[in-house]
Amino acid sequence: MEKQKNGNESRKKERLARKMEFLDNPDKRGDIPPEQLLSMIAVKQGDTFLDLGAGTGYLTIPAAKASGGMVYALDVDSDMLEVIESKAKKHNLMNVRTLKGNIDDLPLPGDSVDIAIASLVLHEVDSLSHSLQQIRQVIKPEGYFVCVELEKQEEDGHHPRIAHEDMEQEMIKEGFRVIKKLKPTDKVYILLAQK
């Protein structure tokens, strides 16, 4: 019984390690370091961030360092939230708060964050329109929304992807004003919008 428990624990750690390696791979994000992504936004000292689908804290930790304001790391995976808490502790960051939940039902009050970032997560939501409404609701007036996504490719038939034109139209439909569009690679796009 003890041997089986240790085997299950070992497999869980291996899965977590593989997931972390995948999520932290810069190639997956168009080779854009988090600091470069954050420099595209006029981050002010004390800005409040929401990292949607925070994963390993790839953007959470740099955002916490850049603004000094509260950074909410939202993810559905408790293991990922523990990783973020560990990283925040390692970097002596007291301004990181983890939230277990999903984008379809954000556990924050309206007009509570200056900047929301959704990096490689919106293609996984059930209703893009509803998720964008939720995101817009928690962003303060004149606040920013940064969307990083993988471009839809012809050969991606079995992987859910959203073309940048479609994402931009959905964002506009939900009341965002797209102010900057970037394509760092053929596979990745970044849309910076304002509420």
| CATH homologous superfamily designation | Vaccinia Virus protein VP39
Ranges where pLDDT stays below 50 over 5 or more residues in a row are: none
Number of domains: 1
Shape: globular
In short:
With 195 residues, the protein is α/β, with parallel strands linked by helices. 36% of the residues lie in helices and 24% in strands.
Please characterize this protein's 3D structure:
The chain is of the alpha/beta class. The chain has a single domain, classed as 3-Layer(aba) Sandwich (Rossmann fold), CATH 3.40.50. The chain has helices at 2-23, 34-39, 60-67, 78-90, 128-138, 164-173, and strands at residues 49-52, 71-75, 96-100, 113-119, 139-150, 177-182, 188-194. A seven-stranded mixed β-sheet has the order 3-2-1-4-5-7-6, with helices on both faces. One of its GO terms (molecular function) is methyltransferase activity. Residues 1-29 are annotated as: Disordered. This is Methyltransferase domain-containing protein. Keywords: Methyltransferase, Transferase. Residues 44-158 form the Methyltransferase domain.
Summary keywords:
24% strand; methyltransferase; alpha/beta; globular; seven-stranded mixed beta sheet; single chain; 36% helix; Rossmann fold; 195 residues; Methyltransferase domain-containing protein; 7 strands; 6 helices
Walk me through the topology.
Layout lengths: L1 H22 L10 H6 L9 E4 L7 H8 L3 E5 L2 H13 L5 E5 L12 E7 L8 H11 E12 L13 H10 L3 E6 L5 E7 L1
Parallel strand pairs: 1-2, 1-4, 2-3, 4-5
Antiparallel strand pairs: 5-7, 6-7
Keywords: Methyltransferase, Transferase
Protein name: Methyltransferase domain-containing protein
GO molecular function, one term: methyltransferase activity
